[in-house]
Amino acid sequence: MEQFRQIGGVLGSLRALMVLQGSIDVNPRQCRLLVDAFDLAFHAVADALRTHLTFDPKHTLRWRPLEHPLAELHLICLEGEHYVRRCLEPKPIWWGKVLALSREADCVEFHLHNLLWCLPVVLEAIEAIAEGAVGFDDEATRKNRVLVSKKYEKEWMEPRLFQHKLGELYLASKDFCARLDSASREDHWILSQILNNRKISPLDPLTDHEKSLRELLISPKSQLFPSSVLVQSPGYQVCKSSSNFMEVQWMGESFLVEHLIGRTIDEASIANEISALASMVHPNVSHYMYVLADQEKKEWFLVMEWMRMDLSSYTKNLCSTKNKASFPLLVAVDTMLQIARGMEYLHSKKLFHGDLNPSNILVKARSCSPDGYLHVKVAGFAKWSTRNSKSSTSVEGETDPCIWYAPEVLQEQEQAQDGSTNNSNSCINGRLRCSEKADIYSFGMICFQLLTGKVPFEDEHRQKDNTSKNIRVGVRPLFPSQSPKYLTNLTKKCWHSDPMQRPSFSTICRLLRYIKRFLVMNSEHIQPLVDYFELESSMCKSFTSCVQKDVLGASEVPFQMFAYRVLEREKTSANVKGTSWDIEGDETSVWGEEKQNTGILTDDPLLSPQVNQDASMKSSAKKIHGKLKQQLFRLVSPGQKKNTTTVIKPPQLSGRSFSVNNGNRFQQAMMIPARRSTDQIRQNWWILCLLHSAMAEGKQEMPREDQGTARRKSFYGFLLGILGSAFLLALAFQLLFPRATDARPAPTEDDANRCDLFSGEWKKDSSPAYSNSSCKFISSPQDCLTNGRLNTDYLSWRWKPYGCKIPPTDTRKFSNSMRGKSIAFIGDSILRNQMESLLCILSKVEEAVLVYHDETYQSKTWYLPSHNITLGLIWAPFLVNSTEAKSKKDIQIYLDVLDPVWTSQYQNYDYIMLSGGQWFLKETTFWENNTIVGCHYCPGKGLKELGMDYSYRRALRLIFHFLSAADHKPLVVLRTWTPSHFEYGQWYSGGICNRTKPFNEGEYNADPVDAVMRNVELEEFQEGLVNGLNLSLLDIYHLSLLRPDGHPGPYRKYHPDISKKPQEDCLHWCLPGPIDTWNELLIAILMGEEELRSSL
């Protein structure tokens, strides 16, 4: 437990450091993400220890297998702490720290990658101890075996199921993965804001050199800057130089600079290649952080991160005269993995090295590692690089560079010779043919040197002139007999004579991650019981799309480790006796415990009755999970509850409309329906009361003989009673809840030149513009397909206005027209729903970066850097001030005070989208002038019931008064009321929405509350126009009213158990879904406004 205590100590240190997180001005979001990840990992390990193990001082040896995994996790935490300290510590020269840290990817792709790899290893080690605790609390041990076997059921080997079931445990949840993707971009935006503020600060004005540094930091990485920014900096010093490389001190930090002279290189080719190479950022690739040039002297300065030396020199320094291995086995495998990850990244960019050898691999010691771990970067892949002419050296002197080249490359060189047989075996100085498989061969030779400490072929005593020929005929260096077979097999596959038999670097990375896990869990480094290439083959068959990815992101590492473990358990159990799922056999596969002098695996006699029980539980689990996967993947039309619907024409819901002329310009034409107020309902209520009173009086005055006759004819009286009651109910409904208007009229010839975008019908059309898998902005409650919804017909409808078409949504044109603009969405969760839809639509052109969120993640800000567009989501459900943040019941709303959350940011936006209403249906108390004036739904409080329409009207009126008085005059778009489609109840009262297709005109009874609230919006909107406000109306009520099929329903949760009748959401909308049409119409409005502004 000492290692676990040490991890807790590091975590405590990090928490203390983060007290000062406001002082972190370089990579603050990445630092916060790293600390949060360590905290989550620590609690995951602690929970696993509590669940599976009990501490017994008499049996501390049981915990020994945890020592190495926890030590590895401790090392990762120490390195993470060092990273946070680097970002936090004050530097004498602030600019140097920013230059060194702002353009790296170490947080996610190095520190978090290592954490996400190590956490499954630690958890598995805990489970292995719990499973293998023979003789200690046998009942608890059996339970642990059952728990672990269920966790590694093969049915969970599906990425989305894994993310749902185990995502929180393995730090692979959807929210955490989104933070991994956005943290570095958020930090870049924050840094740009800091630099902009320093530019305009009168208290600390920038010098000319600092202004140059500022431009260098905020400009695109490929942009060329004058070399004076580097060589004329205060304190600039060349510490060491070798060939074209220099170690320099720049602004107090060490950098490696590649110095190129224009007379010896093709300047045009350099300029073209730099723009591609400068954008490559990976912790295992030596990338160009800054590019500077002196045009007059034709000099280029390519600034890179400083590394201590190349791998060839480092290996030579560590090798002993007895040819012992230069690295511990675990360190060698870690170094191999880092090289493979760097090459995997380069190959994903379609960049092949062509000269991969130890001289082109830069290394430096990791500061917190006592075991010799290195930080590795692949270098020398630029076409102009001169490092590739440098040969790796052995302990005896110069080495033939041909040993690093693949046989097909040497064969190509042979064919390129002029016909001279004497020189056919010598290598050409310069760049040979580049290919993916040739790089993998070179990697295999590097692996040999790392595992043996020897340069390939140095023990063969062959003449130098024969090296190339020997390689081409299939001669390879020999491993010592004690070399681990699982590593020698991998190396031999990499240097296979047939290029097609060599694995890809993605495969190599997966294998090395799992081999490293095996070494950490098995300090004796025994031979594993399964062939890891067999696991990889099974993985490829099961997940073609997963393994075909060019680069495995850090967030996908936990699933890869889990899937490999499931496959390993399955293959191991198949080899243990005749059982289909032998837990004890699998335990043996992890720790390699065998009976002495026999090949029989150790058995636990107490497991005999348990095996059948486990097999039975597994069979049951398979049935359950089989049904789950069937729901997820099979698109079967669900049964729909049959019920009759009264055919009543819906209300006329026309709002803002547009005219389309030959210039494709929109002109506004407002069509407001006649006013209707709640007075009509009150009048109809009195009519109904009078009718009821008259019927009662008539019954009392009925003669005795008529009553006797009625009693004798009870059957006919019963029927008449039913008919009378039905008539009375129908009359009551018509009187209390009159229809707003008739259905929308069919288009006429007058509509030819007049297009009301909000009047039309839904027509079958193609699939949506984006998918659940292509957009990462979809919240889980709106991710209906991922949550198990089987019917997909709701995706194949498009809104068709009468007499016209919605202008085609040109996302790129819209993004360009909004360049430099800002848009705010102010309202409640339905507006958040709409914002996520807009982000998905815009992601086809550019993916937005989350640059701000409040403590509750309700208000957020996204930024599109290429177009300089800001999108703000401001949580203000009442739009006026309220206590909703403190209480969801008996909310106090202040109808004469606007919510400062949005009014304080109003002036920062060019366009404002406002919506509200649904929250006004809650139990609320109304305040005006610091006095309670009434309430909505407050029985027993003795307050005046004013109704939700009163408070909503007062809020809109106050908003429009604020807009009229404000100096800032953006275009304000009011989105109308959103109808819900609950049937047989409401929220928390059994309401459902199980329809699978849109309504036709007249198939739906409009909720009278919806009609009343929408009328309030239209009336106040019309008053606002009369008062000269710059308003527009997004009237989505009618088109949304016709889409009962577009709600999440029960699929607001992941694969809900329908038989238990879960709470359904019939208010928000699935994504993709009908709500995308709202944004198509919004885009049309905003582009029309931009065209209008540009014409003035």
Automatic annotation (TrEMBL):
SUPFAM superfamilies: Protein kinase-like (PK-like). Gene3D superfamilies: Transferase(Phosphotransferase) domain 1. One of its GO terms (molecular function) is ATP binding. It is a single-pass type II membrane protein. It is found in: Golgi apparatus membrane. The chain crosses the membrane at residues 715-737. GO terms for cellular component: Golgi membrane. The keyword Transmembrane helix applies. Keywords: Golgi apparatus, Membrane, Signal-anchor, Transmembrane, Transmembrane helix. InterPro entries: DUF1221 (IPR010632), Kinase-like_dom_sf (IPR011009), Prot_kinase_dom (IPR000719), Ser-Thr/Tyr_kinase_cat_dom (IPR001245), TBL (IPR029962), TBL_C (IPR026057), TBL_N (IPR025846). Belongs to the PC-esterase family. TBL subfamily. This is Protein kinase domain-containing protein. It comes from Zingiber officinale (Ginger). The lineage of its organism: Eukaryota, Viridiplantae, Streptophyta, Embryophyta, Tracheophyta.
